[in-house]
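User: hey, got a sec? need C-type lectin domain-containing protein folded
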Amino acid sequence: MWDFSVFCVLIVFLPDEKENNKQCHYQKLACCFGILCVILLAGLVAVFVVHSNITNLTTRNQDLENQKNNLTQRIQDMETNWNEQNISRAQWSIYTYCIDNDAKQCNSCRKGWLLNQTSCYAVVNPDDRGQKTWEEAREDCRGKNADLSVVLTEKEKDTINYYSWGDTGYWIGLRAEGGKWKWMDGTELAQTSWIGDATEGHCAVSIQGERWSSVSCGDRQRWICIQDALSL
Ligand SMILES: *[C@@H]1O[C@H](CO)[C@@H](O)[C@H](O)[C@H]1NC(C)=O
Ligand SMILES: *[C@@H]1O[C@H](CO)[C@@H](O)[C@H](O)[C@H]1NC(C)=O
Ligand SMILES: *[C@@H]1O[C@H](CO)[C@@H](O)[C@H](O)[C@H]1NC(C)=O
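Assistant: Yep! Here you go:
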């Protein structure tokens, strides 16, 4: 733009040898001012656009700043909440593992649960009316901060077999899915010899002294929950 102005000044005021009349100068001058006007107008529009963009960005920045403050506040609230939760959890654990028993001493498993190796087992053995479908049994275990039993080693299999009291079956955490037996976390049963073919809609039942059997998940059975033992 500066170059253009200089150019205008030059053509208007430098003497032109061929056409040295005034009218021509004025024409050139008018033409130059016209073009200058257009350039100025474009500049003005550009400034306006940039300015409104900056205003937008400032507003957006302010919004983000607010959001950040909100989140910081929420994190603080959650930390406070978490701290309280930790304390009430600790209190719950102390009560459950150390006080809620006759000897008033700390145990690796809760009252009514059986310690074997590093796990606690709950053998849920209600009468016929209390028996549950696989899904309901699982809900029950989860309500106890546990899950249906998962059996990964030969030793754990022996333990489940050992706890499968009586002559009826107990749900374990194994179900047929897509033609495969799968534990609840989705891993496949590695030892296929432990049970027969996986029939869709069937779940696994442990019966003492027998191979696991495949039963419709909607049947009602007893069940065994498992939970990590507390290390004291
Ligand atoms: C921040 O939280 C307040 C209320 O806690 C709410 O009114 C405001 O809209 C929130 N701001 C953002 C940017 O989320
Ligand atoms: C709550 O306990 C968890 C472990 O269970 C720990 O990582 C966390 O730092 C604790 N939070 C507070 C606020 O003490
Ligand atoms: C643990 O399970 C095994 C079978 O795997 C059994 O022989 C043993 O008696 C059980 N231990 C207890 C303390 O019940």
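Quick note: The chain has a mean pLDDT of 91. Let me know if you need anything else on C-type lectin domain-containing protein.
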